[in-house]
Specification:
Layout: H1 5-8, H2 20-23, H3 33-47, H4 56-73, H5 76-85, H6 100-106, H7 112-125, H8 129-135, H9 141-152, E1 155-156, H10 166-169, H11 174-180, E2 182-188, E3 191-196, H12 202-212, E4 216-220, H13 223-247, H14 256-268, H15 271-274, H16 285-318, H17 329-347
Parallel strand pairs: 1-4, 3-4
Antiparallel strand pairs: 2-3
Helix pairs in contact: 3-4, 6-9, 7-8, 8-9, 13-14, 16-17
């Protein structure tokens, strides 16, 4: 039976096609970037509940669709163009953007005096204003990066919620990402989206354009999340390609890599084509709770099973040897630690 993901998962009752605001369950022409990101985050967590099982492919497709909507609506220039295409009329033509200090003052993170102090701190030490407010502990890095994105007219992205596509990641060497603190994400409307800590240099943008044959669009993320993402996602890409290579047919002309990738994609649905699996602490709260409950059940049976085995299997068969009190501990010593290790170090990792 075919499933209508828009109706069943997102709760959209009207017929499609749907605009970005409808998909993200937002009022038409919503301008609050934080509200847009929050709605995306909630929907992302909900849709990820279907990321395994028979709906895994459709789930990943919808996640990609939601991510593209969010990135468009949190990019001031792209949002304005999109809104105008949707019939919105702006009262003024001038596309002014607030400075980072004004954004943080408006959000209540600092006052004008602290902003002026941070400006002086930045000038004295040769820092950017973004680095200065973080070093002064006025705001955390994520808040500062979001404000910088608003100042630059760019989108902010949480890489824990929006991992890259492996087919995009595979075209750029890991060392290039490390050296420049960037992470290519996916292609949206014939434009490559690249997460970076600041805007790309002209030379780097040109290199990426030549590698991918596409224009480049920057989205901002914290340096820590980019560095962590580079290590995690390239490691998972390497594992996925190795598994795919085992299933592929080597032709000697370099085509085995493509065949292997296709074979792996067929077996793991969206592993290579759509993105990596999530670690336990990156799962949505509902899925974390479900895995916790299953883990507790496994731990409980790790204690109960040895007792049952000792009393109903071991002792009746070796009672003549009179092992006494030592017998009940045999299965406990063997089974309980193994179950605990699996749950704590593997299943909940």
């Amino acid at each position: 039976m075919a499933i209508d993901v828009y109706k069943d998962w997102l709760g959209i009752k009207e017929p499609g096609p749907f605009d970005h605001y409808t998909l993200l369950r937002l009022p038409k022409f919503e301008d609050d970037a934080e509200k847009i990101r929050n709605n995306y985050k909630k929907l992302n967590g909900h849709v990820r509940k279907y990321a395994t099982g028979q709906y895994s492919v459709r789930s990943q497709e919808l996640l990609n669709e939601l991510a593209k909507c969010m990135l468009c609506l949190t990019d001031p220039e792209r949002k304005r163009d999109y809104d105008e295409g949707q019939g919105r009329v702006f009262e003024e033509d001038e596309r002014t953007r607030p400075s980072m200090d004004r954004v943080l003052i408006k959000q209540g993170h600092m006052d004008r005096g602290q902003a002026k102090e941070a400006q002086g701190f930045a000038e004295q030490r040769g820092l950017t204003f973004c680095d200065a407010v973080v070093q002064m502990k006025l705001v955390d890095r994520e808040t500062a990066t979001k404000a910088l994105a608003e100042e630059r007219g760019l989108s902010y992205i949480d890489l824990d919620e929006t991992p890259p596509q492996f087919t995009v990641l595979d075209k750029l060497p890991k060392q290039v990402c490390r050296r420049n603190t960037i992470l290519p994400l996916f292609i949206d409307e014939a434009v490559l989206l690249v997460a970076c800590a600041d805007e790309l240099s002209h030379e780097l943008e040109e290199e990426l354009r030549l590698r991918y044959g596409l224009p480049i669009k920057t989205v901002l993320a914290t340096p820590q999340s980019i560095n962590a993402g580079v290590e995690q996602y390239y490691s998972e890409l390497k594992d996925a390609l190795a598994a795919a290579a085992e299933a592929g047919v080597t032709t000697g002309d370099g085509s085995s890599r493509k065949q292997a990738s296709a074979s792996s994609a067929a077996k793991s649905s969206t592993k290579v084509a759509s993105g990596p699996a999530k670690r336990f602490n990156q799962l949505p709260p509902e899925e974390q709770q479900k895995k916790k409950q299953i883990g507790y059940i496994l731990l409980m049976w790790g204690l109960i099973a040895p007792v049952l085995i000792d009393n109903y299997l071991v002792k009746p068969n070796i009672s003549a040897l009179d092992f006494g009190a030592f017998v009940p501990s045999i299965s406990t010593i063997l089974i309980t630690p193994c179950v605990a290790f699996f749950v704590l170090k593997v299943y909940w990792k």
